[in-house]
Amino acid sequence: MNDNTPPPPSPAKPARNTSQQHATSEALLELAIEQHLAGDLKTATDLYQQALQVDENNAKVLLFFGILHNDQGKHAEAEQILKRSLTLNPKQVLAYQNLGRAQAALRHFDDAMTSLQTALRLPQCPLEVYNDLGSVYRKVGRLSDSEDCYHKLLAVEPNNAD
């Protein structure tokens, strides 16, 4: 055997398994949400993006990244991100709610009504969806439907009259 023989190639680094990617993405998501809630939107944005680099198909990260875009007034971007999140997990009530909010801000009222009505049909729908839908109905002149939404909200939360 010749001593000048090059060493065998080092084995390729094993790809991270999906559960490891998911755990890393979820940890970054937690940090991003903390920063988002604290008002540090720049750091939150960076953390959401890092989480998506690790796991681009994490519907929950996409949901909160879409919410961040809504909070920043970037409604067209929010709409696209939230739609992607919903293609990965179509049972996310908060994604439909925030998609409806983005669509309403973009004046896509028919789409907003559809998204918010879908949210209302899902389990654990937040009551403020009635307020969101009532607001959209009011903007398109469906005052009776708007009033019905507000009555439903007040029937459950009578102290929410503001």
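The record above closes out task 2.4. Task 2.5 opens with a second protein, given below.
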Amino acid sequence: MIEQQPQGLAIYGAITGTIALGINLFGYLHTRQKDKVQLTVECSEDENARSNLERMLKTENAPESERSSLESIYVVTVRNPGSVEAHIQEVGIVDKNGSMHTALIQTRMFLVDLSKAPKVTIEPKAMCKFKIYIRRGEPIFTPASCFVIDQQQKTWKQKVKLPVLVVSASA
């Protein structure tokens, strides 16, 4: 009888030790995933894209001071569903011809390429929208995919299926 008590105590200790190890291992694996930057990216047509393009066409023959050289046509939304802030280095789209168009952001008075501007930080559980512009004289492009690159050079991509922007010249 005396020999059975230490054996039962040893089994009880082994079971509780194994359970504690399992709980700690699960906790470690769960928090390790939370410490990584997680981003999602999607692209949509700017709500004023058609009117922006029509305005660009209407002012084609106007004096240079009365016409804009850039108009926004797409919006890239970057979400940070993770629990760590994300530092964004570059955002953009790749069109169907393989050309890359990067987002421009407003800094004081000018639109600047995001890669040349101060770094943008997206807080956990937040999102940020970036505009893609078309330059005067550039053909209208349709995105095939959108992307975001963080400060560690990790790239997130998403394929895009948007209709081709068509604007009548007589508008």
